Amino acid sequence: MSETEATGTPIHVEDEAHLERLVDENDVVLVDFYADWCGPCKMLEPTLEEIAAETDAVVAKVDIEELQEFAQSQGIRSVPTLKFFANGEEAKTVVGVQDKADLVDVVEQLG
Known about the structure:
Blueprint: H1 3-7, E1 11-12, H2 16-25, E2 28-34, H3 39-54, E3 58-63, H4 68-73, E4 81-86, E5 89-95, H5 100-110
Parallel strand pairs: 1-3, 2-3
Antiparallel strand pairs: 2-4, 4-5
């Protein structure tokens, strides 16, 4: 059982290795690259919490201030940036606030 299956809530990513474990151990992972000062990131928060609770996807949160080098290595230039991983591979990236239905569609397509 993965971490979110037990909690149904977004997981705060502690480091690059933590995210790699989540991607390796789960079929679909939605990674939210965010910053605490980012207004659109705050707007997206409830949507991501609902997706974590309502879908089989793992929702992982990466604070770009806390993990600056990792965010840069992932090519993150603006927040929020959402990356979807399916079966250990990066599958899709979207930038900016997204509609919940659109995000759920991507999760279901990948799942």
